[in-house]
Amino acid sequence: MKESPITIFRKHGGQLRMSEALSHGVTRYMLYSLRDKGIIEQVTRGVYRLTELPPLSNPDLVTVSLRFPNAVICLISALYYHNITTQIPHFVSVAVPRNSRIPSLDYPPVQAHRFNDEAYRSGIENRTIDGASVKIYAPEKTLADCFKFRNKIGMDVVLEALKLYRTRQQFNLEKLLMYAEVCRVKKIMAPYLEAML
């Protein structure tokens, strides 16, 4: 017996891309019918979720991660996720490999940054937010990235994040220096880290 579309959604955490739904035997017609009946909702273009699920706690990060699985949440968006900034992100900052297409969405607004291979691959943590897999940089990698992009985001934001990291996270000098090396900002970061010891 064929599984119902609702069962297929539930088996996959209640959320599917259209391509995934189609590959599991849910037709476009079924998707639109379920949406029109209020059983599923369209989170963003090509992404659907069951309306019975609790509301998304972080809809912007989930939406961007579902639409662009290779994008990694970075800079202010990652600082905010790790609770080491008082800044409120006005867009979702993501890192993508240097040679990849820059993601763009109508909503939420996305600011993409191209990283070289080593900087892109280093420090990625896979977190589950509202049932979706979200790639986000570790706090230490995020701080190194912020030092690298200090002219874009402001040195005051970077230094505040470093202070909050020290008080709110487990201070890990070894990791900070390792990611500073990867991001080629070790000489810039070192004096600030030494001042904290």
UniProtKB/TrEMBL annotation:
Protein name: AbiEi antitoxin N-terminal domain-containing protein
InterPro entries per UniProt: AbiEi_N
Domain AbiEi antitoxin N-terminal: 7-51
Lineage: Bacteria, Pseudomonadati, Thermodesulfobacteriota, Desulfobacteria, Desulfobacterales
Any Pfam family the entry gives: AbiEi_4
Organism: Desulfosudis oleivorans (strain DSM 6200 / JCM 39069 / Hxd3)
